[in-house]
Fold:
Amino acid sequence: MSTRAQQTPAAPVGTAAAATLVLVVLVALALRPPFTAVAPLLEQIQHDLGVSNAFGGVLTTLPVVCLGVFAFVAPKLRQRFGDEKVLVGCLIVLLVGNSLRALGSIWTLLAGTVVVGAGIAVANVALPGLIKRDFPHNVPVITAVYTMCLTLGGAVAASVVVPIGAALASAWRAPLGLLAVPVLVALVISLFALRRSSGAPPLASSAGALWRNPLAWQVTAFMGLQSAMAYVTFGWLPTMLQSRGMSPELSGLALGIQAAVQAVGSMSVPVLCHRLRDQRPIAVMLALLIMLGFTGILVGPAAGLWPATVVLGLAQGAAFGLALTVFGLRSPDSDTTTALSGMAQGGGYLIAAAGPLLIGLLHDATSGWTAPLVLLLAVSTAWLAMGLLAGRPVQVPSVIGGVTRR
Structure:
């Protein structure tokens, strides 16, 4: 019998593990700002470039499509170059994409968005496998750190881009361009930290069996439906709040606060997973809180807008953390985690891309938020159903050739 333990070194300790953790934190901080920074600036972008609401919809939907399309190539890149080189390459791609968007034309904005989406997609897939590889016994905890850094990076970006644009007398070009600065810092620090990284090479593997596995598809739907609701929030929360009488400045701040609160929600995942080895009750609880949050924002009393925003943020942060944690919990080794992550994020983000678009179409068709709310409640219910399947304490088969599980 051949086992994973016989084929790869033990999980790293000391400086090697610390280097991996530094890489996880720095990459995570860079992944959300390119998305969350656009929503508060969207009105200025449309006005300055003279483009329609349809272009605005494309600009908010295109990154999510890229997350789906480019996620499928990540496992192959990881197998060829290794985890660390792939993630450093993603930082370089993000640096280029953010710089392109700052040039300010319609075409550089779109091209930069595609480049940014490609870098984020590959990093999204590679990181869960790296966490499973170097922290196999602490997947929920390290995933929570990763998720917290993701949400904090997005929260800060959403909160500061409008004031930065006003201070620099540049409505949107300078704020988008400045997103390249923290990426550059992360790249330099990562290159230094990785001198002490383990750099364990991945094994030859084949993910074809996952596409025939029902649990893998359930994890994919679980990820996709959660992401659909998250990107509806990223793209439409300021507009929703403004329709309830909130100012543009406060609605942008609310998006930032909602994203920041997600970090608190994500940190609850290790505690919940420790207390409940079966993740199904967690999914049920989070689905109900998400429904409560959207309902409070769209049809609740005006005094409840801020509490509803906080509840939605807490629940969505925990839901995102749970979806990422499931990749590691439902797979037996890091190679399978990466393959499952690629499948779930590739298919999942393609599902998610329809979310903001459908909400926009329903809002335009009905001139209100009742129909969009009904859709969001239906998606939340479907996510709950997938959680009852993906949350079971079982695993998909290993993708590593020759590995026998006992």
Remarks:
- Residues 334-366 form the longest helix (33 residues).
